[in-house]
Amino acid sequence: MPSAADIEILRLAAFTDDPRGGNPAGVVLDAAGLDATDMQAIAAEVGYSETAFVDGDAVRYFSPAMEVPFCGHATIATAVALARRDGPGERVLRTAAGDVAVRTQHEDDGGAITATLTSVAPRVEDAGAIDEALAALRWSADDLDPALPPRIAFAGARHLILAARTRARLADLAYDFDALAGYLSARGLVTVALVHRQDATTFHARNPFPVGGVVEDPATGAAAAAFGAYLRALGLVAPPARVTIHQGDDLGRPSLLLVDLDPDPDSGVRVTGGAVAIAS
Predict the structure, then answer these.
(1) CB atoms within 10 A of CB 76
(2) Which CATH class is domain 123-266?
(3) Which of 8, 50, 90, 107 is catalytic?
(4) 50 belongs to the catalytic site
(5) Quick one: how far is CA 2 from the chain centroid?
């Protein structure tokens, strides 16, 4: 079985222009010949929240503990890595969640590249009872912002969305890892997206990811896309609109995610960010 030492693994921080920020992702641009067992073992060895494995236009995503259908930050990292190898432009990546269009472009003469992904068609569902989730988070119902009701949103992966009434509540996160993992796993959820609204189109976010063996993601593109769909479906923003999400500040890895929403409720959500190499 190949290990991380046997193949070329690119390491990039996504949704940042500083390798000390953003969310680290592994990217294997030539995954031909690797099976799921190989990919899972390599992702566990790399240790990032996700590693993307590319075989032609097909991409698979593995956390240290499981395969996920779609990962936004690893898609941004993959798109930037492909643009550095092949030049910027447009392509369609085939993922387990469906086809995801990506566009890359140079931002300046210094070679910085940003990528925009367009999610699969999103959907928003009722969250049902959330008492168990709140207990696992060690939150109370009074900690929630009544203007942003709990929902489950999907734009490639399913996320529970909970809005904190205050920024201080969002900053103070000390949850029960096993309890939250059990809650998410039982409902087919990948993360819980915790958000706080700063103003009409600016939000702060955190994403516990215990089902993937990760305490928290510092930048979560799939959840950002799902959250954009949530805002549009509930009429909390008026599209066309751009939403800015700040994530990772509470982890010391500041990240910036830009979410663009079209008026068509069935259209994919666009998420834009940069990615930079992390020194070996």
Answers:
(1) 31
(2) alpha beta
(3) 50
(4) yes
(5) 27
